[in-house]
Design goal:
Layout: H1 12-29, E1 36-48, E2 51-62, E3 68-79, E4 82-89, E5 94-95, E6 99-110, E7 120-131, H2 136-143, E8 150-160
Length: 167
């Protein structure tokens, strides 16, 4: 009679289970409720011979009892289905505990990327906002690149095809 190989039930299974529980507990220890964010406004600022300047206003709300420091915001704009702007910067802001706040970032569209002609064209804007979860373990995970939480926002609308230069 052939018997299957013996299974070791002693030290390996409990050790593996303990490791999984520990890792799950550590990951849970740095969990946090993500802030809410939305595109509040996109408005035209000015038009020059070099291009057009817009301001993208993002509003956020933190429903936790701890401040969430914002690390970076990566944002973009498409006009007429074509990417015309993309940038990354520090929002130099914190979503304070149990509060709301906003920040504004510039969008500079070069003249060559502006649609020519009268009428309106569809646009899309979006941003990925990376933030820090409080706590030493969360900081370690962030610094090691293991957990870098972010919240995404998007909006769409129509805008004048080629705004007139600002006097």
């Amino acid at each position: 009679m052939i018997h299957p190989p013996a299974t070791r039930v002693g030290s390996i299974a409990p050790a593996a289970l303990a490791a999984l529980v520990a890792v799950g507990g550590l990951a849970g220890a740095c969990a946090s409720t993500a802030p809410e964010a939305r595109v509040a406004d996109l408005h035209f600022v000015e038009r020059t011979d070099a291009g057009a300047l817009y301001a993208l206003k993002i509003e956020g709300a933190n429903h936790t009892k701890k401040d969430l420091r914002l690390e970076s915001v990566r944002y973009w704009m498409n006009v007429g289905g074509k990417r015309v702007f993309e940038a990354s910067r520090s929002p130099q802001a914190t979503f304070s505990a149990l509060s709301e706040r906003s920040f504004t970032v510039p969008i500079a569209v070069p003249v060559g990327a502006l649609p020519v002609g009268a009428g309106e064209v569809p646009y899309k804007v979006g941003a990925a906002i990376m933030y820090h979860v409080p706590g030493p373990l969360a900081k370690t995970f962030f610094d090691l690149g293991l957990r870098r939480p972010r919240v995404l926002v998007r909006s769409a609308g129509v805008a004048p095809a080629d705004p007139e230069p600002t006097p």
